[in-house]
UniProtKB/TrEMBL annotation:
InterPro entries: aa-tRNA-synth_II (IPR006195), aa-tRNA-synth_II/BPL/LPL (IPR045864), Anticodon-bd (IPR004154), Anticodon-bd_dom_sf (IPR036621), His-tRNA-ligase (IPR015807), HisRS-like_core (IPR041715), HisRS/HisZ (IPR004516), HisRS_anticodon (IPR033656). The gene is hisS. This is Histidine--tRNA ligase. Residues 41-380 form the Aminoacyl-transfer RNA synthetases class-II family profile domain. Keywords: Aminoacyl-tRNA synthetase, ATP-binding, Cytoplasm, Ligase, Nucleotide-binding, Protein biosynthesis.
Length: 492
C-alpha cells in the first residue's frame, strides 16, 4: 500500500528584521504623518510618491559590483535582466525623478515624501529592515537661504509631531568646515581619502568615548573592553590636538560662540571660511533665530562623505525615562543637510539640493515614553450581538455611532456573552453596548464603561458589593445611545 504523502504546511513566521504592526501604533503614525504633511504643505512643498523599486544603478553607493548586488539593499533581476532594488531611502529616488523630469520641473523644486524604505542590514533591538521615512527637500536653490528655510521648517515639523520646543534642539554644522579642518592638518589630497574617513568615523565617536578615547583612534588605535583592537588614523600629536580643539568647539565649551572659535581655528583655510560664512548666513536668514531651538555645533559629523554644505541633526534636549524611571537614549530624531552632488550622477552638472528626514519611529517612541495625551488610541466601541435575529438592529446602532464620529463595530464571532466581553477587552474597547431581549422590550440599551470597570475592579474585592453597585454599567433609552456613549468617551 502506498504511503500517504504528507501535506506540506509552511511555518508561520515573519522574516528576521521585519515586524507586524496593528491598530494603535498605525493610527498614531498616520495621525503624526498627517500633522507633519500639513506643515510641509503650509510651507509650499508638494507631495511626491515614487515606486518602492528603483534600478539598482540609480542608488549611487549601491552600484552592482558582484553577480548579485545585495550589499545594503534587497535586489532582484527583472525579466529584461536589469537589476532592481527596494529603495534604501527617499533621496536617491528624488534625485532620479529630478534628473528624469528636469526640464519640466519648476526650479527650485520643492517636494516632500513619506513612505517605507528597506535596508538589507543586520537587524538589532529597535533596528528593523523596513521603516518609515518622512523627507522634505528643495532642489535647485543654493546655500544659505534654502538651508535656513529647511532648518526652520525642521523645527516646526518636530513641534507638529508633538514634541514641545523646549524638549529638543537642532544642531547645525557644515561639511566645508570639516574640509577646512583637513586642510589645516594636511589631509585634503585625494590620496588621503582613507585616512580622512578613519578620522571622521573616529570624530563621530566623540560623545561615546570622550576626548581620551578618540585621541587613541586618531593616533595608534584603541582597545575596547572586550579586548578587540581598532586601528587608528596614525596622526601626530599636533594634528590630534587640532582635531580635539575642533571637537571641543561646541556651545558648552565656547561660551556660546562656537562659530567664533571655529573661525579662529580654521578661518585661514578657504573651506573653513566658506563654511562659517554659510552658517552665519543661516542665522541671519531666520528672523526669529534667537527663540528657536537651533545651536551651532561643528562637532556634528553626519555622513559627511555624502553632504557638501550645512548639515542638521535633531536630538532631545533632556533625557527620556521609561515607566520605571530609567534613562532611555533615543539618539537622533532626524537630520539632513546639503547634497549638491547627487543629481550630478544623472545630469553631469551640479544641481544644488538640501533636505531633512524626520525619524518618525523615534518620535512615536518618544511620545510613548513621555505619555503624551496624543499617543493614546482606544479601540472601537463594540456592540455585542446577543441574538442572531437582531443583527440588523445591532448594525444600526454601530452605524449611528459612526455617523456621530465614534469608532464602532458589531461583534461577529458568535453569541457567547463572556467571549464577546473578552473580545472587547482585547480590542481595547472603551465601551460595550449590550441589548438582550429584556432591554429591547423596555426600549433600552446597557452602556458598559470598560475602562472605568477595569479601574474599579481593582478596588472592589467583594463580589456582592460589585453586583450591587455596578457603577460602570447603566441603562439608557435606545434613542439616547449615541449621546450616552459620547459622554462616557469624553471622560477618557
Amino acid at each position: 500500500m502506498a504511503k500517504k504523502q504528507k501535506t506540506f504546511r509552511p511555518k508561520a513566521r515573519i522574516p528576521r528584521g521585519f515586524r507586524d504592526r496593528l491598530g494603535a501604533e498605525i493610527a498614531a503614525e498616520r495621525e503624526m504623518l498627517a500633522r507633519i504633511g500639513a506643515v510641509y504643505e503650509a510651507w509650499g512643498f508638494d507631495a511626491l510618491e515614487t515606486p518602492a523599486f528603483e534600478y539598482t544603478d540609480a542608488l549611487g553607493k549601491f552600484l552592482p559590483d558582484t553577480d548579485r548586488p545585495n550589499q545594503g539593499v534587497f535586489s532582484l533581476q527583472d525579466d529584461d535582466e536589469q537589476w532592481m532594488s527596494l529603495r534604501y531611502d527617499l533621496t536617491a529616488p528624488l534625485a532620479r525623478y529630478v534628473a528624469e523630469h528636469y526640464d519640466a520641473l519648476p526650479k527650485p523644486f520643492r517636494r516632500y515624501q513619506m513612505g517605507p524604505v528597506w535596508r538589507n542590514e543586520k537587524p538589532g533591538p529597535g533596528r528593523f529592515r523596513q521603516f518609515t521615512q518622512c523627507d522634505v527637500d528643495t532642489v535647485g536653490a543654493p546655500a544659505p537661504y534654502a538651508d535656513a528655510e529647511i532648518c526652520a521648517l525642521f523645527g516646526d515639523v518636530i513641534e507638529a509631531a508633538g514634541i514641545a520646543r523646549s524638549d529638543f534642539f537642532i544642531r547645525v554644522s557644515n561639511r566645508k568646515i570639516v574640509d577646512g579642518l583637513f586642510e589645516k592638518i594636511g589631509l585634503s589630497d585625494e590620496a588621503d581619502m582613507e585616512t580622512r574617513l578613519t578620522v571622521m568615523r573616529s570624530m563621530d565617536k566623540f560623545d561615546k568615548f570622550g576626548a581620551e578615547g578618540v585621541a587613541l583612534l586618531f593616533g595608534p588605535g584603541r582597545k575596547d573592553e572586550s579586548g578587540d583592537f581598532t586601528d587608528g588614523a596614525k596622526l601626530d600629536d599636533a594634528k590630534i590636538e587640532t582635531v580635539l580643539a575642533f571637537l571641543k568647539s561646541g556651545p558648552e565649551n565656547s561660551k556660546g560662540d562656537p562659530l567664533g572659535v571655529i573661525e579662529k581655528l580654521l578661518g585661514e583655510t578657504q573651506s573653513g571660511a566658506e563654511g562659517v560664512a554659510e552658517l552665519q548666513g543661516i542665522k541671519a536668514s531666520i528672523p526669529d533665530f534667537a527663540s528657536r531651538p537651533i545651536i551651532f555645533d561643528c562637532s556634528v559629523i553626519r555622513g559627511l562623505d555624502y553632504y557638501t554644505g550645512p548639515v542638521f541633526e535633531a536630538e532631545f534636549a533632556s533625557g527620556l525615562t521609561d515607566a520605571k524611571g530609567r534613562p532611555v537614549q533615543m539618539g537622533s530624531i532626524g537630520g539632513g543637510g546639503r547634497y549638491d552632488g547627487l543629481v550630478k550622477r544623472f545630469k553631469g552638472v551640479e544641481v544644488p539640493a538640501v533636505g531633512v528626514s524626520v525619524g518618525v519611529s523615534r518620535l512615536l517612541a518618544a511620545l510613548e515614553l513621555k505619555k503624551s495625551a496624543e499617543e493614546t488610541a482606544n479601540g472601537p466601541v463594540v456592540v455585542l450581538a446577543l441574538e442572531k435575529d437582531q443583527m440588523a438592529e445591532y448594525q444600526k446602532m454601530a452605524s449611528e455611532l459612526r455617523d456621530a464620529g465614534v469608532r464602532a463595530e458589531v461583534y461577529l464571532g458568535g453569541s457567547n456573552f463572556g467571549k464577546q466581553l473578552k473580545y472587547a477587552d482585547k480590542r481595547a474597547a472603551p465601551v460595550a453596548i449590550i441589548q438582550g431581549s429584556e432591554e429591547r422590550e423596555k426600549g433600552e440599551v446597557q452602556i458598559k464603561d470598560l475602562v472605568l470597570g477595569a479601574e474599579l475592579s481593582k478596588q472592589i474585592e467583594d463580589n456582592a458589593e460589585w453586583r450591587e453597585a455596578q457603577p460602570a454599567q447603566f441603562s439608557v433609552k435606545r434613542d439616547e445611545l449615541v449621546e450616552a456613549v459620547k459622554k462616557v468617551l469624553a471622560r477618557r
